[in-house]
Recover the amino acids of this structure.
C-alpha cells in the first residue's frame, strides 16, 4: 500500500511522531512518504490570513495520514486550510493524529480530531483510525507507541 503522511509541524513534535510511524509502516512492507504542509508565514502568533507555501499532492496515495499540532484548542489553521483546499478524498483510506502540549485530550486534541474528521467527510472520506499525543503527559512515550500501533492497523 502506498501511504502518504501529510504533516504540519512547526517545532518538530508532530514530525517526530510521523517519522517513527513511517519507520513502522515501512517495516511492515508499505511504501511510505512524509510530505510537509507549510505556510508562507509559519509564525504561530502571526495575525492575518494564512497562505499555504507547500501543498502536497495526494493523488498517488492509497492511504493518507494527516498529522498536525493543536492550536488554541483547535486543529492548526495551516492544516485546516490545507484540508479545505483538497478537491476530493473519495476512494482514499484516511486516518489522522494530532500532538498537543497539554496532558489531556479534552484540552484541544479531541476537538482537533473532530475537525479533521469533519473536513475529510466533506471531501468524501471517512476517517477510521485516530490518535492524540499529549506532550506533557507523563506517559508520553507510551502514548506515542499506542498511536503508532493504532495507526498501523490499516
Ligand atoms: C499558538 C499555539 C497555540 C497552542 N494551543 C494549544 C492548545 O490549545 N492545547 C494544547 O494542548 N497545546 C497547544 N499548543 C501546543 C502545541 O499543540 C504542541 O506543542 C504541539 O505538540 C506542537 O507540535 P509541532 O512541534 O509539531 O509544531 C499550542 C501551540 C501554539 C504555538
Amino acid at each position: 500500500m502506498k501511504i502518504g503522511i501529510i504533516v504540519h509541524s512547526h517545532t518538530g513534535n508532530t514530525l517526530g511522531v510521523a517519522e517513527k510511524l513511517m519507520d513502522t509502516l515501512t517495516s511492515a512492507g508499505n511504501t511510505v512518504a512524509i510530505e510537509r504542509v507549510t505556510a508562507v508565514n509559519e509564525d504561530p502568533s502571526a495575525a492575518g490570513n494564512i497562505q499555504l507555501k507547500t501543498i502536497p499532492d495526494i493523488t498517488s496515495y492509497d492511504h493518507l495520514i494527516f498529522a498536525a499540532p493543536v492550536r488554541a484548542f483547535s486543529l492548526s489553521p495551516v492544516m485546516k486550510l490545507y484540508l479545505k483546499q483538497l478537491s476530493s478524498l473519495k476512494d482514499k483510506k484516511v486516518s489522522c493524529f494530532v500532538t498537543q502540549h497539554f496532558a489531556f485530550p479534552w484540552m484541544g486534541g479531541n476537538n482537533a480530531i473532530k475537525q479533521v474528521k469533519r473536513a475529510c467527510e466533506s471531501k468524501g472520506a471517512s476517517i477510521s483510525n485516530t490518535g492524540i499525543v499529549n506532550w506533557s503527559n507523563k506517559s508520553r512515550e507510551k502514548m506515542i507507541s499506542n498511536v503508532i500501533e493504532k495507526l498501523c492497523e490499516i
